[in-house]
Fold:
Amino acid sequence: MKNDIIIEKLNNKIDAFFCNKLLEKLIQSEREFNENINENFKVKNWFENFYNEETNAIFIAKEKEKIIGYIYIQITSVEEGPMKEKEGLLDGLYVESEYRGQGISKKLMESAENWAKENGIKYF
Structure:
């Protein structure tokens, strides 16, 4: 991984807006496997709505100020479900194609796993 790429927790609406654009790319890339995905679909206010909730974590990879990847995880509730313990659910991982193969996904996963452990998550 390049030395100038940093991993940090998403903490503002501007970065959340740019994560929406990466989510659009992720969704559109899935059209290769799912012909039912609308090619004109646009993500609006997705990450802005919950980036700062305690049960979610979004980590971003940045080169300088440009967001080049993200990982989104959430804590699942055990209150009404069959699980005895809270679980972490990986709900999205994306790295821009030109940055792949540099270990960025691995660093994003490590950040997500550390956050999960810090929040009492035993299963991820």
Observations:
- The first strand starts at residue 5 and ends at 9.
- The mean pLDDT is 89.
- The beta strands are 5-9, 56-63, 66-76, 87-95.
- The first helix runs from residue 13 to 29.
